Amino acid sequence: MKHVIIGAGVAGVEAAKTIRALDERADILMISADTQIHSRCMLHKFLAGERDEKSLDFTEEDFFEKYNVQWKSGVRVIQVCPQEKEIVLETKERVGYDRLLLANGSDSCIPPVGELRKASNVYGLRNLCDAQAIVKEAEQAENVLIIGSGLVGLDAAYGLLERGKKITIVEMAPQILPVQLDAHGAKSYQRLFEQAGVRFLLGRKACQAQCGADGKIHEVILDNEEKAACDMIIVAAGVRASVGYLDGSGILCDRGVSVDSYLKTSQQDIYAAGDITGLSGIWPNAADQGRIAGKNMCGVPTEYTDRFAMKNTINFFGLLSLCVGRICQEEGDEIVVCEDQRQYKRAIIKDGKIEGILLQGEISHAGTWQYLIKNQIDVSGIQKDIFKISYADFYRVGERGKYEWAV
Ligand SMILES: Cc1cc2nc3c(=O)[nH]c(=O)nc-3n(C[C@H](O)[C@H](O)[C@H](O)COP(=O)(O)OP(=O)(O)OC[C@H]3O[C@@H](n4cnc5c(N)ncnc54)[C@H](O)[C@@H]3O)c2cc1C
């Protein structure tokens, strides 16, 4: 059986390991545009100069030998032909497969504002090559403008602060980390970044940006006509599933490649895992999906059931946060908050069930929260402080003396 995996990120790597564990004779070929395996979550450490390229690798040193995986690196797949069971590389080489995994992630999205897409000093931060280009540009840049204050924007800021850059972040929402945190939780991070010298322009949109004679943008005009001067720009305003090369393949796409609960696409013998599915945009979910797709590719039917909730951990300046489930408040929600000097906790409850939890500072019992949210356990009968509940509140000793769920 020949398994071809497009992408050498965590989804592709985990799929390859799973396939090898289930079938020691399978041919496994990975193909990636990347020339080096690296953790995107660690790119800020590279920007900061705290890690070199080699130490971003998250696989064992002898990964390809150990798992007997072939790797074509530094080459893009430009077409998938399900009828012929072949893919086409940018070199025009055609590669056949029995089972194919699409695990090629997302692309940074540069909005069509002024000449942002044309300028030579504007970067996304997705791949190691982006980080390398940013470090090079930063050698001659003092003022860095970052558009977007999500995790990627703050990662970029965190890394470049270490290089002594002056950083301004423009964010169109009224708070930073608008997808991950509520306003109160986000404010704690804002303060920490401000103490480190970052300037935030919140509730503002970049509207105009023209290139100078050198092909670079030196100022961005905001929607209130304020001008933000810059020597380089990092755009961290979202990502898009990297599905462009699937045009004409018949593989259905929505926010990403559409998959069923077995991570199978609309075409025979083609699976998808990781950010390309648009199901999630975080590392642990991409890894899980890679493992599950690998099992299904080997004929071991396994469902992906973790579609329920967003999970995020955030750690800047030693302040740790964990969010599971929904963060935005909706009509009919009950919001329960607990705060002291060490921590901030906020739960969203609807119809007796917890739909979202944010833990900041102290993140113990995360597993309990995850369980309650995923399984939609009714907590309305619990007569105690919701932040003090534990598994014990849901267990009882059953007839045969064994623990079982009481709710
Ligand atoms: C700066 C940054 C910080 C992040 N921080 C966190 C964090 O703190 N916590 C967290 O949980 N998540 C974080 N994430 C998200 C996390 O990195 C992703 O969810 C994860 O990397 C997705 O893995 P993947 O295997 O689906 O795709 P990717 O890791 O994106 O890998 C895609 C692979 O496909 C290859 N590829 C792409 N197109 C082609 C093509 N046409 N042909 C061949 N190969 C191709 C690429 O070269 C790459 O090898 C961060 C992401 C970024 C960018």
Automatic annotation (TrEMBL):
Q: Which residues form the NADH-rubredoxin oxidoreductase C-terminal domain?
A: 312-377
Which InterPro entries does the record associate with it?
Answer: FAD-bd_OxRdtase (IPR050260), FAD/NAD-binding_dom (IPR023753), Rubredoxin_C (IPR041575)
Which keywords does this chain's UniProt record carry?
Answer: FAD, Flavoprotein
UniProt cofactor(s):
FAD
This protein's record includes keyword Flavoprotein: yes
The chain positions of domain FAD/NAD(P)-binding read: 1-290
Pfam families linked to this entry: Pyr_redox_2, Rubredoxin_C
Name of the protein in question: FAD-dependent oxidoreductase
